[in-house]
UniProtKB/TrEMBL annotation:
Family: Belongs to the short-chain dehydrogenases/reductases (SDR) family.
Presence of keyword Oxidoreductase: yes
Protein name per its UniProtKB record: SDR family oxidoreductase
InterPro entries: NAD(P)-bd_dom_sf (IPR036291), SDR_fam (IPR002347)
A Pfam cross-reference name: adh_short_C2
Molecular-function annotations in GO: oxidoreductase activity
Amino acid sequence: MSAPVLLIAGGSRSIGGAIARMAGERGYDVAVNYVTNRDAAESVAEHVRAQGRKAAVIQADMSKEEDVPRMFAQCDAAFGRLDAFVYNAGGFGGPPSNFIDVSTQTLRHSMNLNLLCAHFAAAEAIRRMSTRSGGQGGNIVFIGSRAAENGSPGFGVWYAAYKNGLHILSTALSKEVAEDGIRVNTVSPGPIHTDSNDPTRWPERVNTIPLRRFGKPEEVAEAALFLASPAASFITGTVINVSGGR
């Protein structure tokens, strides 16, 4: 029996890299998507291969609609199946700012990255997984953000709005595709120690976290892979917060 295949959009670094590495350790073949940092994606792929699993590296920009079907086609060519899809692509789309100063370019880029292309990518995954279309079922996991509930006033209100839309997309879509054998869930991280979110830059943020520390990318990966696993077979339409109580 062939290994299950996991495709991760935004899988070369930080949370995405942790999910991809852990997936390889847990028996998945992994397709690692990246935008510009091929070396980072190759490093993740090498870790997966070191576990005795297969890995493919796929360049595609999840802010561009036309790149989404190409990413899935390359995953098809590498593995010929898809069992789990994680949408980890996201970002502010531009520099942080207050509400009235954000540029239209930033708004559009962030909307494409956080919400629109998440929709297009989920549709591609469903076409491959749906039992009503000849697939074997599967799992979709979105990586959201606690900003969807807490907002990012003075910093990125638009980002919070798009992530809130992603959470709603996830819970609503889970009901639509349940009879297709597909589960859809979201992991909503709070402050996680990543390359772009170093606690030493904002030491005061620790005071807003009940557990008094930033999370680790691996802690988000644990939640994502749990939701994609048979252990979560009766869980769909759920948002799991990985936020230290924030």
